[in-house]
Amino acid sequence: MGTSYGNSLSDPLSDPDFIDSPPMIQPKFTSRSQSIRAVIGDTITLPCDVENLGNNILLWRRGSAVVTAASLIITRDTRFKLLKGYTLQIKNVRPQDAGDYSCQVGDHDNRDLVHTVEILVPPSVRSNPETGHVTVRKGGTATLECKASGNPVPSISWTRKDSLHGSPHLADGPTLTLDAVSRQDSGTYRCYADNGIREPVFVDMQLIVLCEF
């Protein structure tokens, strides 16, 4: 008489553990990525609003560096602060603060929201040489030079400060060249730098033409 085997597999529909759980609602960013331009010294805020965060942790990253985790400030830079929710505030911004900031949901998908920050720097200018004095003999060539920095890169222009005809525009660019100079070319020349951030700045250079008597 053969051995009778019962049905060793239970009916999945009768298994209380086999119950379809409702699909998990995924986190969703309600903020949008932004390109933020700020002048050095300003305070900026980077929004990060998320729906259905659940038990996930929200991270702020700059590159590979973690800035915040949940409500904790990881960076030692005291200029960084979390405002209501997960909005990141940066006070007294510096040029080195430029870059991409990612607000990231710490789940298996690592979904993130990225803000790009550009720091605008007002122009600065200096003469070359730093003494601001250039001496050349009559009939020679005088070269006046100034160097400017800032973001965006400043434009440079030259005027004659002590001209009898006001301050006419002489040239654009970091170098002003005067050929076959005479006694009348002696005087003060002004180098302007302007990039549209705050006010233009300038530096004065003194040209001395040596004449034989």
Automatic annotation (TrEMBL):
Keyword match Metal-binding: no
Pfam families attached to this UniProt entry: Ig_3
Biased segments, Polar residues type: 1-11
InterPro entries reported in the protein's UniProt record: Cell_Adh-Cytoskel_Orgn, Ig-like_dom, Ig-like_dom_sf, Ig-like_fold, Ig_sub, Ig_sub2, Ig_V-set
Occurrences of domain Ig-like (ranges): 27-114, 123-204
Superkingdom: Eukaryota
Record bears the keyword tRNA-binding: no
Record's keyword terms, sorted: Immunoglobulin domain
Region (Disordered): 1-21
SMART domains linked: IG, IGc2, IGv
PANTHER family in UniProt: CONTACTIN 5, FI23916P1-RELATED
Protein name: Ig-like domain-containing protein
